[in-house]
Amino acid sequence: MAEDNLPRIASVIPVLNEQDSIIDCLESLCNQTIANESHLIYVLDGGSTDSTTQVIQDFIDQMGQKSPEIILLNNPGKHVAEARNLALSKMPKSIQYMLEVIGHCTLDPGHIQIVVEEFDKLQRENDSKIGALGVKVESKDGPLGLSESWIEASLSSPLGSSNGQFDNFSGTQRTNVPAFCLHSRLAVEEVGGWDTEFITSQDSDLSMRLIKSGYALFRTDLTTVKMTKRTSLNSWFKMGFRYGFWRTKVVKKHPERASLREFMPWFGLILTTMLFLLELDIWYIPPLAYGLAITLEGLRNTIVKRKVSLLVGLPLSLLILHVSFSLGLVYGLFGKSRSFNDRDSRNGNIQ
Question: String of b and e for 63-91 (b: at least 16 CB within 10 Å)?
């Protein structure tokens, strides 16, 4: 039948200055086990100043009919939420699923087939409507730079990860925070798409609105996305600050997303300050306990991963994360949504 040849899945990739990574991403999407005709790929450029758009167009010309249709669009709104809403408005009616992708990640060949089959299975087995299915996030393939290895270790540490996109979960489970989701197109349309007030954490906001509209969200470890996070401590600090800032914005809109754990550094600082002002001899115990905790975590990772640099690098990167995220949380209380430069990007903000 004619309907069998219509696209069912659309992968949506917002990009900005990702000339060094976008081709690996596109190749992984073009090498999926699903039929090319069932898959559309939208790449939405937010104003790249490098050769990102040219290398994408060259790739499209090179692939021709050998890949799913790849559609390169200009994103006048610049940011991720606008890009995904634009793709949503351009999709043919046959599209049932939207897959979240970014320009510095890659997918295994069976990824889309696995998440679609698991999504359909969850829908059959649950009374609730399914809004999204996320996956685990792993490090990119290949060797890591020195700072990059510290950052990866921080994200895999209990002291650096949360229950968000970098959580090391197991199985298929219900969640409030799925990452790299396969979304139901109808669900996304029902809640009005992505909120363009969010430059970062737009997916967290969307998840909360889906839940409030009666949709169940899941995540699975049946497949993973391999992602380059940050490759320098400077970009790591910026990421932590930005995530903290936007976390506060999400919590102000969705108070149920608040987590006391995220405010622990501030609690520790306040406690230390109070003890010091009261001239108690034990004022140094909270910072000492914190320093001991991150040092022991560095030692544990050094032994487990047999990488001596983690003895210093992991505590340092954890300290940078906790400080930057905590500062971002506070700035989010009074800072305007677009009051700092979220788009100082080199290769997708990873450098």
Answer: beeebbebebeebebbbbbbbbbbbbeeb
Q: List helix spans (H) across the chain.
A: 22-30, 52-63, 80-90, 111-125, 146-156, 185-190, 202-212, 233-253, 264-277, 285-305, 310-334
The three-class DSSP label of residue 97 is: strand
pLDDT digits (tens, 9 = 90+) for 270-303: 999 999 999 999 999 999 999 999 999 999 999 9
Q: Cα torsion at 273, 275, 280, 284 (round to 10°)?
A: -70
Which amino acid, one-letter code, is at 303? I
Instruction: Find tokens 């069912």 and name the residue.
Output: 8
Type of residue at 67: S
How would you class 310 by CB atoms within 10 Å of its CB: exposed for 0-12, middle for 13-18, buried for 19 or more? buried
pLDDT in tens, 211-223: 999 999 999 999 9
